[in-house]
Amino acid sequence: xxxxxxxxxxxxxxxxxxxxxxxxxxxxxxxxxxxxxxxxxxxxxxxxxxxxxxxxxxxxx
Length: 61
Known about the structure:
Blueprint: H1 4-25, H2 30-53
């Protein structure tokens, strides 16, 4: 994934898919859990990339 915008789009797709799966099959369904794990990984990656790409704030010592 190249940009934060692309990542946000994929996060939204996975969220919708997970919600739909949970409504149809329940939260404990294997597919729902798999999507949840994939979403967690993508959210963690998004936060990591966001931190790296944002400017650092320097504090005075």
